[in-house]
Amino acid sequence: MDLNVERFRVELEAKVALKARPTLIKPLAASHAEYKEHFKAQAAELRELQKIFFAANRYALLLIFQGMDASGKDSAIGRVMSGINPQGCQVSSFKHPSTQELAHDFLWRASQRLPERGRIGIFNRSYFEEVLIVRVHPEILKGEAVPDQPDPDAIWSSRYRSILNL
Q: What is the pTM assigned to this prediction?
C-alpha cells in the first residue's frame, strides 16, 4: 500500500489552481479489513519510532491539522495518533485568542506551544488562522492593538512573510 504524495505537493511560492489539484485517490486497499490491518501495522511502527525519537531527545516534530469546522480534524488526530504514547505528545487547539494572546505578536501563542525536543506536537488549527479568521473578523485585529498602517494590506503581507520565515 503506497501513496504517492508528490501529486499533492505544492512548491514554495507556486501559483495554485485548485481546480487542477487532485481531490480523490484510488483506494489503497481492496477491503476495509485490509485497511484495518495496514493501520494496525503502521500504528505499531509509529509507536516504535516514537520511542526512538523520545530517547534521542534531539528534535521535535510538529503536525498541523488545518481544516474547516466539522472537517474531521479531531477524528483524524485521535485515529492517527492512537498508537503513540500520550506522554510524548502534546495537542494544542487554537480558539479565539485570549486577552494575553492579543497583547503579543500574532505568532506568540503558537510559539508558546511548540513541542519540546523528543516530543510530538499537534496543532489542531494553527497560526494560519491568524491570516484567515482575522481577515474575516477584523475585530480580532482591533483587539491586537496593531498600529494603524497607511496601506491596510501591509499587515497581511507582513504576516505572510513572518509565516514563511518560520
A: 0.75
* 103 contacts: CB under 8 Å, gap ≥ 6: 145
Ramachandran region, residue 70 (left: φ > 0; alpha: ψ -120 to 50; beta: rest): left
Burial of 46 (0-12, 13-18, 19+ CB in 10 A): middle
Structure-block grid coordinates of residue 91: 495537542
Q: Residue 123: in which H helix or E strand, if any?
A: strand 120-124
- Single-letter code of the amino acid located at 27: P
Q: What is the pLDDT along the chain (166 residues), one digit of tens a residue?
A: 677 788 788 888 888 888 888 778 888 889 999 999 988 898 898 899 999 999 999 999 999 998 888 889 999 898 888 888 888 899 998 888 888 988 898 899 999 999 999 999 999 988 887 788 888 888 888 888 787 777 878 888 888 888 888 7
Three cell numbers written together for 122:
499537534
Q: Does domain 31-126 have CATH number 3.40.50.300?
A: yes
Contacts of residue 134, defined as CB under 8 A and 6 or more positions apart, other chains included, come to: 106, 140, 141
Provide the CB-side half-sphere exposure for 161 (13 A, CA): 6
